[in-house]
Amino acid sequence: MASSPRLMFMLHKAAPRLTRSFFTCHHACKSPLVRQQPKRLFGSGIPRLSSDGLLARPQAAASIGKITQSLQSNKRVRFFPETSDKAVAYWLLGSAASVFGIVVFGGLTRLTESGLSITEWRPVTGSMPPRSAEDWTAEFTKYRSSPEFKLLNPHMTLDEFKSIYYMEWAHRIWGRVVGMSFLLPAAYFIARRKVSAPMAGKIVGIAGLIGFQGFLGWWMVKSGLKDDLFTPGSHPRVSQYRLTAHLGTAFLCYTAMLWNGLSILREHKLLADPQAASKLFERLKSPDLRIFRRSVGGLAVLVFCTAMSGGLVAGLDAGLIYNEFPYMGLGLTPPKSELFSDFYSHTPDRSDIWWRNMLENPSLVQLDHRILATTTFTSVMGLWAYTKFSPTLRTLLPAACKKGMHGVVGFVGLQVALGISTLLYLVPLPLASAHQAGSLALLSSVIILGGRSWVPRRAARLISQRLAKPIRMPARALR
């Protein structure tokens, strides 16, 4: 027992000393990556403590607040990424192209008077056309009970009915394809976190707008199947109000898809070079460009309103009267008694004579469309002249905006030529369809110009975050 203290002393001397250097990999410490990047937790450097439990450097005390904020922020896990994937942009642009096509095809359906050939709305069972002779006979019997057949096509044969039936059926099938090709990829992109949180909300909104568009389509067709919705004995047609609502919703769907698709691509392009993007934003934010930016926004609204007035012209067949330009009869405008006729008033005191003539009188509706189209053309040319001859805009306006302005000038000139030709030649099918497509093309050019002229707030915020210098601890404070 006397030798126990001596034995314990010998064991203590023989035991390895477990110091800090015992746990250090000296080979790894020779790596320059380890020497330059000290160990961090959640992106923030943690100061090492000295042997007395205090901070090794007084300057490191400032990092405690940063560490606390980093720990708190990392507790919140983001479901959506900061930026949307480029595949989402290409999908949105493809959907916009499909909507562009169905708008033009819908115009052809109306021009060929095929829209009232299918008298029922069957979203599921109506996906297939009649297959047997009995099915075709049943569909033809339903059409023969409609006002359009009784007043316009009483001598139509079954083969002639099939031609207009297939036009309306293809239009409806195309609408279903647009809906399914949008809903299924939208659900996939949102579930796989391919879109940012704001973009996910916008996509859901567009999906709802597509569904509402389908309802408006049938609501429009229904107005042409009942005698009480138009003047008895007159030309059976759908309500011009419902037709314009259907057309306007299609324009909104197309604009939303185009705008968001281009926004995603532009955001990726800007984030690829934050320094250049910051300089571009500072240039676009200049007060000298405020008038130009607001003018582009006003021009987009003006083009949309002109297109909607064209929907009223189409719904009332107002293009079949006064087929001359710039005159309308004996003067630039028809007589006032014709423009504001008591025939269209529905109240004894004639309090509705103004707005009903503006929306229901074919003569005044065509005059309104002429005025809006002329105003649009004049506004575009005036804005182009402003960018061309203003020394300030020639210096500040980016080259992409100048090219976009030239594109708008080209499309508005083409659209005016198509509109006048359509009027002079009594609304032929090719010119009328091209005129409708031209309205969407003109609106697209203005939207593209706006995307190049306006500063996106979200992209500007992301770029400012990228350019913000991270707070780095001194190397001595991290040891």
List keywords for this structure.
two-stranded antiparallel ribbon; flat; mainly alpha; 479 residues; single chain; 19 helices
Structure description:
The chain is mostly helical and 479 residues long. It has helices at 4-14, 26-29, 32-36, 63-74, 86-111, 133-144, 147-151, 158-191, 197-222, 240-272, 274-284, 290-316, 336-339, 353-360, 362-389, 391-396, 399-424, 429-453, 457-467, and strands spanning 40-41, 44-45. The protein has a two-stranded antiparallel ribbon with strand order 1-2. Strand 1 and strand 2 (44-45) form a beta hairpin. Helix 15 (362-389) runs antiparallel to helix 17 (399-424). The radius of gyration is 34 Å and the shape is flat. The protein starts with a helix and ends in a 12-residue tail after the last helix. The model is unreliable at 31-47 and 49-62 (pLDDT under 50).
Estimate the global geometry from the Cα principal axes: flat
Low-confidence stretches: 31-47, 49-62
Helix content: 55-70%
Please provide the count of β strands: 2
Radius of gyration: 34 Å
Quickly give the structural class. Answer: mainly alpha
Secondary-structure element pattern, one letter each: HHHEEHHHHHHHHHHHHHHHH
Q: Quick one: biggest sheet? A: 2 strands, antiparallel
Strand order of the largest sheet: 1-2
The total of helices stands at 19
In round numbers, the mean pLDDT is: 85
Measured between the Cα atoms of the first and last residue, the distance is 48 Å
Strand content: under 5%
